Recover the amino acids of this structure.
C-alpha cells in the first residue's frame, strides 16, 4: 500500500522516510520493498534492484520482491538474471 507521500507524488520525501526507517530497522523487509518500489517509480532502476535484493536477504519468500526485481532486471537488459 503506498504511503500518503507517494499518493501525493512526493517520491523523494517518501524515499527519505523509508531510508530513515531502514537505518533504524534494517531487518524489516517491508521497508526495503517500499523503498525499492519508490525507486522504481522514479526510474532509479539499479537502486531499486539493490533495495529489492535487501528485502529478499531478509525474507526470501517475498514473492513480490522476486517479481519486481525481475521486472527491474529485465528493464536494464539483464534478461538472464531476471529469469
Amino acid at each position: 500500500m503506498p504511503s500518503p507521500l507517494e499518493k501525493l507524488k512526493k517520491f523523494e520525501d517518501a524515499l527519505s522516510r523509508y531510508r530513515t526507517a531502514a537505518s533504524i530497522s534494517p531487518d524489516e523487509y517491508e521497508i526495503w520493498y517500499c523503498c525499492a518500489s519508490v525507486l522504481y517509480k522514479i526510474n532509479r532502476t539499479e537502486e531499486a534492484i539493490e533495495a529489492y535484493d535487501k528485502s529478499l536477504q531478509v525474507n526470501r519468500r517475498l514473492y513480490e520482491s522476486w517479481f519486481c526485481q525481475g521486472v527491474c532486471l529485465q528493464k536494464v537488459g539483464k534478461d538472464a538474471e531476471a529469469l
In short: The chain has a mean pLDDT of 95. Helices lie at 4-7, 11-24, 29-41, 45-58, 63-75, 79-82. The two ends are 26 Å apart (CA to CA). The CA atoms of residues 24 and 68 lie 24 Å apart.
